[in-house]
Design goal:
heterodimer; A: alpha+beta; B: mainly alpha; about 0% strand; rod-shaped
Chain lengths: ~150, ~200
């Protein structure tokens, strides 16, 4: 089976999840444990790619996952706090639907941005944080202060 | 016979010798007489020549001739001196004029060279001043620009610090990302095309 058929489930949208899944599967093979012991993301990857597992074994999933990490477009998202899983999955779904079907996210936290998001793409930084918005309107700050 | 002949010849010879001596004595006497006459004549001539009147006349004539000669010579000498003086003056004038003209030409050329050098130097100084002025102006503008940029950066940094501190203070410990999700997706939606272009290397 070709690697083109390898895919990630909707709930696996971060680079961290894929790496964690690879490590878990490696440990599973090493310890000769049952697949039911895998975390939810790893289990989902194995499940959605069951054909590969059946034909080439679980090792092929590791290989395909590593290959996926190399080719997938990666987007760093800097947020003001640690997001809930649903938040990550909704944003990840938006990327896969609107930007690239194999998009992966890497979530980082920086309190100082106040809110919003800073997106680091392949070549550019898209600063959509609150802090940035406030500083863009810095000319209005003295007026606001006067009014207050 | 022979004796007689010899005696006769001897007598003739003696007779001839006697005649010759007498004749010589006579001629000597005549010569002495002539000599005296000549001496007398000589004395007469001397007396005549050296007489006071003659000498006076001769002196007068000589004085006249001398005066005349002196006048002529004086005149010639004066004329010669005048001409020599004139030539000397003309020569001096010519030489002086030549020297002065040469010197004046040298001075004129020197002045022209000095003027030219001064003008060139003035132009260089002017150009240097203009260049220095432009350089100083450029440096001043650069310095002002740098200072302005530095102050702006300091203000920006300070403002950023203030905004950051304010956000941290205002938002507290926890940020409600759930309430921001729609806003974040909306922002991503606004820049969707830019993001797509970026990952496709279309920038």
């Amino acid at each position: 089976m070709s690697s083109k058929n390898f895919s990630l489930p909707e709930n696996v949208v971060t680079k961290r999840d894929v790496r964690l899944a690879i490590r878990q599967i490696e440990k599973l093979i090493e310890d000769d444990e049952d697949i039911s012991n895998l975390s939810e993301p790893a289990k989902s990857i194995a499940s959605i790619n069951s054909d590969i597992v059946d034909n080439k074994g679980i090792n092929e999933i590791i290989k395909e996952s590593r290959s996926f990490l190399k080719r997938a477009p990666l987007f760093d998202l800097i947020l003001a706090d640690y997001p809930y899983d649903s938040f990550i999955q909704d944003v990840g779904a938006w990327f896969r639907e609107n930007i690239d079907s194999e998009a992966l996210l890497d979530i980082r936290v920086r309190r100082t941005i106040g809110g919003g998001v800073i997106l680091i793409s392949k070549n550019k930084i898209f600063d959509m944080s609150f802090r940035s918005r406030l500083l863009e309107s810095r000319d209005k700050i003295p007026e606001v202060l006067k009014r207050v | 016979m022979l004796e007689w002949a010899l005696i006769s010849l001897g007598s003739v010879i003696v007779a001839v010798l006697v005649w010759a001596v007498r004749h010589l004595i006579k001629q000597r006497e005549q010569a002495i007489e002539y000599s005296g006459y000549i001496n007398e004549l000589h004395q007469d001539i001397i007396k005549e020549v050296l007489s006071k009147d003659f000498l006076g006349q001769l002196k007068n004539q000589a004085q006249l001739q001398l005066a005349s000669s002196i006048q002529v010579v004086d005149k010639e000498l004066k004329e010669s001196l005048r001409q020599a003086n004139k030539q000397l003056i003309d020569r001096i004038n010519d030489e002086t004029t030549t020297i002065i003209n040469t010197d004046l030409e040298t001075y004129r050329q020197t002045i022209i060279d000095a003027n030219s050098a001064a003008a060139s130097l003035a132009n260089k100084i002017q150009a240097g001043l203009e260049e220095a002025s432009e350089e100083i102006q450029t440096r001043v503008e650069e310095t002002i620009s740098k200072e302005r940029s530095k102050i702006n950066n300091q203000i920006d940094t300070k403002l950023e610090d203030v905004v950051t501190e304010y956000l941290i203070e205002a938002l507290g410990e926890k940020v409600d990302l759930g309430s921001q999700k729609d806003y974040i997706i909306e922002q991503l939606e606004d820049r969707k095309e830019e993001i797509k272009k970026d990952i496709n290397d279309e920038f």
